[in-house]
Amino acid sequence: MSEIDRFFQLLSSLPGKSYDRELDFIRDVIPTLAEILGYSEAETFYELAAGRYRADVVLTNSIDSTPWVVIELKRKQARNLGDWAYQIKNYLSAFGSRTGVVLSTEVLILVHEGQTVTFSLRDLTPHEAAHILQSISRATQPAPASGISHHESEIANLIEAAETAADNEKKGKSLEALARALIRSVPSLACKYANLQTRSSEIDIVVEYDSLRGRIQLLEESGRYILVECKNWNKPAGVAPVRDFMGKLDKCKIRLGVLFSKNGVTGVDSGADALREIQSRFDRDGVYVLVFSLEDVRRIENGKDFINKLDQKADALRFDM
């Protein structure tokens, strides 16, 4: 069966289907769609952000390149198809891309090089399927343009804000914003809760891992959630706040915590040494507390760098390096 036939068959199979969750729609359609179009798993990114926009699927060779195609999925019927077209155009503007698709079980909206065409999937013809395929297949895409990414610019601005914040409230919020931006740069991580008030404490950020959007070996081992704590202090965080953070991890039964601390944590020269406490806790219970100073963050260029740094810090604990 040819690519055009497979593509036509896939789109024609959608009318009449229903999904309880958008994630179910994504899982059912996108891997097959990407494979038909000629994109590899490494070129298929989920929940990728650009500014205040977060696209369901982005087809690109890296998160720092201009995407070939931006895709939004809609599991419900549209009240106004014009709203969907307007949304995808905003996404294309944010990502700097020339091609976008809105896909539901009933319609496909194609925005390509400034032209917008809406196709009814119930009435789709093989000729129309071939036209869509020509616009979005991997074989017809140019090499994505790279340069200073939106992510790099955003991180640089947030680092400056964290360094120059004048009062305690601004200091805390600026570092939390920086942490969220780093998390958003990883397609398989999402900030599920921010400033979560529990019965016993406040958790700065709860991060949820979804392996469908890209496997991270460390998270495969440690579990579904990460807790994040932010300390934008003028001195290293001591053993007391580290123990407090560990208590939150214990209460939530989570084995991986990330501590963003502007000046790191107290070292081996201190009598009440936070680094020693972190190492001891891992040796005893296998609980990771990974510390990122502002200097660490300056060396992170993209989501892949962030995951590599997480892995390096986890290895440093595991092997007592």
TrEMBL record:
Transmembrane segments: none
Domain of life: Bacteria
Signal sequence residues: none
Molecular function terms, GO-annotated: DNA binding; endonuclease activity
Pfam families cross-referenced by the UniProt entry: Mrr_cat
Biological process terms in GO annotation: DNA restriction-modification system
Residue ranges of domain Restriction endonuclease type IV Mrr in the record: 197-266
Protein name: Restriction endonuclease type IV Mrr domain-containing protein
Organism: Luteimonas gilva
Upper taxonomic lineage: Bacteria, Pseudomonadati, Pseudomonadota, Gammaproteobacteria, Lysobacterales
